[in-house]
Specification:
Radius of gyration: 23 Å
Keywords: Isomerase
CATH architecture of one domain: Alpha-Beta Barrel
Pfam family, one: MM_CoA_mutase
CATH superfamily of one domain: Methylmalonyl-CoA mutase
InterPro entries: Cbl-dep_enz_cat, MeMalonylCoA_mutase_a/b_cat
Number of helices: 17
Strand content: 5-15%
Protein name: Methylmalonyl-CoA mutase
EC number: 5.4.99.2
CATH class of one domain: Alpha Beta
Mean pLDDT: 94
CATH topology of one domain: TIM Barrel
Strand order of the largest sheet: 6-5-4-3-10-9-8-7
Helix content: 40-55%
Distance between the termini: 58 Å
Shape: globular
């Protein structure tokens, strides 16, 4: 094979650029071929080994090195949720993610006869007694508890700053193994309009609040000895290559931040498609969007992926939507062989460059947040909320002017599939007037303005 191209001389990056300039016939190279992203990154027309800077991205945290298919289940009723979990696991899912709304859920019923698979538990409350019972019943499940996400999304702590942090610290260090880890949920930022750089920087600042709290209580060494990891819960954006690079950058910035505390941090990344770019208009296109989004998460190195049904925001949970969403992942894994190569993006000059730039720009923004007092202070100051609103407004303007395209919404609309008179679920942002400590961060779909005018 090495002799196949011997008669061809290697072409340098300089020679490629010279050839491009000739073919442009006087047109400006930068204006014609350089794409400028919202992240402040310039996308070049070609990438070459001459300019490449190899980076070492940590591998997946899964034992197999592959990724797992999971399914999100709302556990409002323990018996119903248990049956849904069994059904999902019998039909291809390799794990389940339980969203538990309150501490009255019967743990024994919820986990009855479930096989030994990866189970994530996302409690929407903070109750150490409940978590103790959960640990006794299911010591190998993974609890995702994020008190700062509670503040950012709801506007209030579970109880208050001090008791929330005290209970969080007790939960983190009281239980062995991966049952209790530091969890950072960044899906809220992405779905409120954050650019990838903002998402990564807010993740770093969010995580740093927890690590700084451990350091203040002289618990860093105890955390290190406990061999914990960082759970990252994320939403997958629509930019295919940017999101591949995003997930690789997540691991780089996690490792970088850990070193500042003398820790070798390992990240376990759970991902699901964002609602940000989903629409009621030509809603079947949502299936195409979620497919490419899941592909980018796999190639970016996510550990667990659960898909979003195409009608999740306007229909009640149903057999068809749930089955199709799960089967999309099964096709990627079993028929498209997306589980055979664990590091497919390694060595791709474009992806490597994107990853490096995203990590560097996120680190710069993170430092700015820290200089201003840290992430929680930025939430109370309203800085994060303001920046997200600005980013959201910019994306909406781009959609309105056609600079940003949503197929079926502002481009190639389906004349045969308009808006319905009624939907099973209210598809727009709901406002709930109440007294809050901070202005909550509100996720919002981009297509809403177009849908309301349809």
């Amino acid at each position: 094979m090495s002799k196949l191209f011997e008669e061809f001389s290697p072409v340098t990056a300089k020679e490629w650029k010279q050839k491009i300039h000739v073919d442009l016939k006087g047109a400006d190279y930068n204006e014609t071929l350089i794409t400028h992203t919202a992240e402040g990154i310039d996308i070049k027309p070609f990438y070459h080994s001459d300019d490449a800077t190899p980076i070492q991205v940590p591998t997946r945290a899964t034992q197999t090195g592959s990724w797992y298919i999971s399914q999100s289940i709302y556990a409002g009723d323990a018996a119903v949720a248990n049956e849904k979990a069994k059904d999902a696991l019998s039909r291809g899912a390799e794990g389940v993610l339980f969203i538990i709304p309150n501490n009255s859920i019967d743990i024994e019923v919820l986990f009855k006869d479930l096989p030994n698979v990866g189970i994530q538990v996302h409690p929407q409350f903070l109750d150490l007694g409940f978590l103790e019972k959960l640990q006794q019943a299911q010591p190998k499940c993974y609890v995702h508890l994020d008190i700062i996400n509670q503040l950012a999304s709801d506007g209030n702590w579970f109880e208050n700053l001090k008791p929330d942090h005290e209970k969080w610290l007790a939960f983190l260090l009281q239980h062995p193994g991966y049952f209790s880890n530091i969890t950072v949920n960044t899906s809220l930022y992405q779905q409120a309009g954050a650019s990838v750089v903002q998402e990564l920087a807010y993740y770093m600042a969010h995580l740093n609040e927890y690590l700084n709290h451990l350091e203040q209580y002289d618990m860093i060494s105890a955390f290190a000895k406990a061999e914990k990891r960082i759970n990252i819960d994320t939403a997958i954006g629509s930019d295919y290559f940017m999101n591949i690079a995003k997930y690789r950058a997540y691991r780089l910035v996690t490792k970088s931040l850990g070193k500042a505390y003398g820790l070798e941090l390992e990240a376990y990344i759970t991902a699901s498609p964002s609602l940000r770019n989903k629409s009621l208009l030509d809603y079947n296109v949502n299936m195409l969007r979620t497919t490419t989004e899941c592909m980018s998460a796999v190639l970016g190195g996510c550990d667990t992926i659960y898909n979003l049904p195409y009608d999740a925001f306007f229909n009640k949970e149903n057999e068809f939507g749930t089955r199709i969403a799960r089967n999309q992942l099964l096709v990627l894994k079993d028929e498209a062989y997306f589980d055979k190569i664990h590091n497919a993006a390694d060595g791709a000059y474009f992806i490597e460059d994107l990853t490096k730039q995203l990590a560097e720009k996120a680190n710069d923004l993170f430092k700015e947040i820290e200089k201003a007092g840290g992430f929680v202070q930025a939430l109370f100051d309203g800085t994060v909320q303001r920046k997200l609103k600005e980013s959201d407004a910019k994306e909406r303007e781009e959609l309105k002017t056609g600079q940003r395209v949503l197929v079926g919404v502002n481009k190639y609309p389906n004349q045969d599939q308009g808006m319905q008179e009624e939907y099973e679920l209210y598809p727009y942002v709901k406002t709930k007037p109440r007294k809050t400590l901070i202005a909550p961060i509100v996720p919002k779909r981009l297509a809403e303005d177009f849908e309301k005018q349809a």
